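Listing S7. Sequence submitted for prediction.
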Amino acid sequence: MAPSMVKSRDDIIELKQFLATKNADKMKILAKIETEEALKNIDDLLDISDGLIFVFEKIEKAMKAMKLNEEILVKKCKVLGKPAIVTFVGKFEKNKYQLINETQLKKFSTMAADAYMLDVLLREDDPLTMITQLSDTLDSLELKITPQELTRFYVKNEFMVRDYIIYNAYRTTQEVDVRAMVLYTENGYSAGRLSSLKPKVPIIAFTKSDENYRYLNILR
């Protein structure tokens, strides 16, 4: 679920309480960051949500005022192993709908954004063309992503041991010729943290939860 116009963690708490009354308490919540209030409370919203959807066009002025940029905000998600989704708002130019450009995609690919949300104003005959264009461009760009520097990314908290294992699994892919990484996850945390390091090999994750299966499909 992707609630719009959220402002604080109380909005997400209220939504979770409502979902619980409908036997949907396991549903993942991806908060849309599209207001100044949400940007100010981004750490709280990220803490209580399962990921964030950034509508950068709507928060551009607030970001400048708070001395934030896209990379800082996406990194906040990646550090916690939660998906960072970027929206694209298109424009009509020369009687043609222009949704994205390679410069934008290259920037967000380098940040390892997990997914892209297309403009809801797409016409019925546009989505397939746009999705194909997006997919083809991403395929070419992601092969050129600069390898992540080997820096420690774990902190002293309840996940320290797990993070240490995740980090060293990633480091192994840099030093040994492996074809893929395979893991089992109950809540998506390990897969999310591992993907945040931008490994060059596929991550194959197993889970027994349908909700986590759908959630993991968002991760890059």
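Caption to Listing S7: primary sequence and predicted structure tokens for the chain studied. Strands lie at 30-33, 51-54, 84-87, 91-93, 96-98, 115-117, 181-184, 203-206. The longest helix spans residues 127-142.
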